[in-house]
């Protein structure tokens, strides 16, 4: 039988003891309790829960395990009842690597989850059970895709996915209609703007720097956008006319592409303050730019 890489289930007890039920090499009904001294896994009065690298010592104590030296950097974290409203499991807690995150009943009241910088290769479908999530930090991992169950996060407002290896986005992400902030910088998105993004009609901030997008013509649907950054992609030729539909736009950064022309429709961005198209191949500035009375910064090189 091949077991998943959930090495331990642990909960924090009142007397600073851990209850462990190993899912790797032990029967499910086998339990062991261990006291830990100076444990850095704490539950604070402000409902902030963190898990630190001190859990490495526990792995060495589980009987029947074949623990190699690198197990201190290979952990599985299971969020359990009482985890709190805000959960952070990231580099600030000195965890270098996590093989998996499993979410079970009891942590569903969580509104903020920070799983940044954990070298995660994938995200469990269980993420969909955190229906109260408002903020989700997944940046600086190794994610190639997202589970379709992310669509269940209907209250999600801010999603940080920068510095991963995302090749695409699930269409289901478009059902997170309350999303206002989406950061996808430094990923591997190619081709046209993902369809999921064009359905996020509440977005006010969208960051797509350092991808390989060559078409953002679907962006016109996102009429609430205030910040749009598509720097260092593969955009070519004329900027899409639909850019003029973004009437609330304040910052537009399309620098470091291969654009050649600014459309007259840019005049529709009445509230534009920063417009950056430097390091492109723009040969002519349209007179319609003169209609942008709030424009303060114009970058063209």
UniProtKB/TrEMBL annotation:
PROSITE patterns: LRR. InterPro entries: Leu-rich_rpt, Leu-rich_rpt_typical-subtyp, LRR_dom_sf. It comes from the Eukaryota. Keywords: Leucine-rich repeat, Repeat. The keyword Repressor does not apply. Signal peptide: none annotated. This is Leucine-rich repeat protein SHOC2.
């Amino acid at each position: 039988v091949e077991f998943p890489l959930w090495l331990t289930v642990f909960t924090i007890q009142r007397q600073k003891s851990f209850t462990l039920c190993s899912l790797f090499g032990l029967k499910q009904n086998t339990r062991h309790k261990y006291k830990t001294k100076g444990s850095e896994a704490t539950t604070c009065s402000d409902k902030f829960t963190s898990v630190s690298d001190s859990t490495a010592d526990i792995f060495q104590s589980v009987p029947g395990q074949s623990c190699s030296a690198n197990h201190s950097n290979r952990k599985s974290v299971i969020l359990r009842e009482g985890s709190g409203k805000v959960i952070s499991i990231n580099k600030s807690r000195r965890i270098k690597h996590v093989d998996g995150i499993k979410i079970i009943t009891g942590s569903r009241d969580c509104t903020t989850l920070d799983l940044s910088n954990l070298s995660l290769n994938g995200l469990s479908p269980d993420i969909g059970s955190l229906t109260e999530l408002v903020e989700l930090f997944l940046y600086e991992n190794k994610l190639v895709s997202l589970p379709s169950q992310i669509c269940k996060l209907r209250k999600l407002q801010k999603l940080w996915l920068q510095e991963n290896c995302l090749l695409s986005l699930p269409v289901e992400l478009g059902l997170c209609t309350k999303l206002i902030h989406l950061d996808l910088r430094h990923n591997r998105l190619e081709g046209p703007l993902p369809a999921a993004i064009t359905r996020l009609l509440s977005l006010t901030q969208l960051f797509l720097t350092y991808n390989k997008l060559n078409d953002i013509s679907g962006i016109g649907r996102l009429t609430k956008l205030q910040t749009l950054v598509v720097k260092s992609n593969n955009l070519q030729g004329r900027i899409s006319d639909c850019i003029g539909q973004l009437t609330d736009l304040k910052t537009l950064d399309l620098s470091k592409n291969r654009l050649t022309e600014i459309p007259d429709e840019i005049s529709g961005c009445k509230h534009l303050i920063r417009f950056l198209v430097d390091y492109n191949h723009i040969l002519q500035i349209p007179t319609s730019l003169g209609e942008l009375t709030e424009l303060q910064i114009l970058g063209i090189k």
